[in-house]
Amino acid sequence: MNATAARQTTFAVQCLDHVVLRVSDLPRALHFYRDVLGCTVARERPSLGMVHLHAGSSMIDLVDIHGKLGLPGGAAAGAQGRNMAHLCLRVEPFNEAQLREHLQMHGIAVDAPASSNFGAEGDGLSLYVQDPDGNGVELKGPSSDCGC
């Protein structure tokens, strides 16, 4: 689709509403996203093996691979493959030393120093970690372009 065709749609993407992650251990994943990253539980749906988490104005849905919604997806992501490259969470404030200290307190490794990466607001510093299922999570600070 070319740029002209894209402008002719009757709608415009406003933001990332939610992402659904299939996880092998729901309590472990919930601990990571809630207790380590600070997301809050919006709704738990045990009959589906699902927890909805607020992540700022977006949501992260965790689906147990052994639950009603997770089973159709097949095997869990593992050493030979992933569900995605990473998801990016915009965080503020972005203080690299404090972020590293917080993550280290929770046993989360950060191997590389913060680097500048492009995102929805422009270029800004990011750190990369992995959730308990090996999914990449980018923690991104404000854009240096927007004066935030």
Automatic annotation (TrEMBL):
SUPFAM superfamilies: Glyoxalase/Bleomycin resistance protein/Dihydroxybiphenyl dioxygenase (SSF54593). Gene3D superfamilies: 2,3-Dihydroxybiphenyl 1,2-Dioxygenase, domain 1. Residues 15-142 form the VOC domain. PROSITE patterns: VOC. PANTHER family: GLYOXALASE DOMAIN-CONTAINING PROTEIN 5, GLYOXALASE FAMILY PROTEIN. This is VOC family protein. It comes from Stenotrophomonas oahuensis.
